[in-house]
Amino acid sequence: MAKLGFKHSLAAWRGTTTSAIRIWWTSHGIAVLRLACAVMALLAVLKLGEEFRRLLLDPGYNGAVDTRILNQLVREWFDGRPLYQELVRAVHPPATYVLLWPLLGWLDLTPARWLWAVTSLAALGWLVYLIVQESGADTRLECLFVALLALSMNATGVTIGNGQLIVHILPMLLFALLLLRGSRGRWRVRLLAAGLLLFALVKPTISAPFLWIPLFASGGLLTTLLVILGYAGLTLFALLFQESTPTVLAQGWTERATVVAATGGYANLHKWLACLDLQEWMLWVSLLVFAALGFWIYQHRKGDFWILLGVAALVARLWTYHRVYDDVLILLPMVALFRIAKREASTEGTSIAAGLLLAATVLSMLAPARLEHFAWPWSFLFKGGHTLVWIMDLGFLLHRARRDRNAEV
Asked: pTM for the whole thing?
């Protein structure tokens, strides 16, 4: 009886709290959104302005640092240099160098930086358009807020300044999955989607987990096979420019990747295993998580498309080595949370929980990346705070997907 009374009291308190939050949001929600948009817009202008300057004009090492590295790696791969034996930074699989050649392989560094800036700007605009269209936002203020989710994230600025890949990858990946969602078997659409997914595999640690969605959720077995065959073909083509055998190249690549994963990045399984001196388990644990994601998506393949995207993005961020620029992945679960928060409020307060989690995630993603390298406790708060918020987001989306699945049974 006491236990039943406690549950009844808890339910009553939750209902009262939910009602109070709804009433407060009805009165102050527009003002809060306006303030949030003003702050996020200011941060976006300051951050993106500085990072485009760093990408294009900074002559130092940090100016377009990753574009500089990738430009060197792509050119030297096709010149036949044994990168996996000589350069620590050669951590990308062979097919990546083929996919990057159109942007970086035929230009010197300065024109390559400008081409990267132009394509980054176009890709960022494409990404903003897609998330606004898919968000369910129905006022100009809400559309502005969703757009600023992408533009104000600290990770977006770092990606631009470094000349990293994720701003190019994410809109291709998202557009391909959206095409497959509504393709209805049209082979031209599926072929286009396969091409976009193939280009998105320029960085498999970001895009590979999303391949479960077309395989199971969209009925795209043929599309997935085309992507796999295309990636295998690009790999074989890349190997033609190296004298070493495929076995030697594979061993060199995995050794380089393991070293980098153990020493760099944050908030991912590889880093946590390295801290426990379990580097030898990195590959197997990542494969286990990858397989678990596939099993989960198969079970929920008929569920909310954006919940599937959000879960895949969070797993992609956590399953292997990533640095702060790859935090742009968290944009997808933020859009998923926004969509849930926009729906009609349930008696269980699901939309309010989604809104609170969205607010916490937005605040965490605005934190300056330099805090990662500050002395304790700032570095701990930065890394630990991001990890905690992402795991809470993942737990919420998993719970919501399970509830939706049970409701259909």
From this structure: 0.93
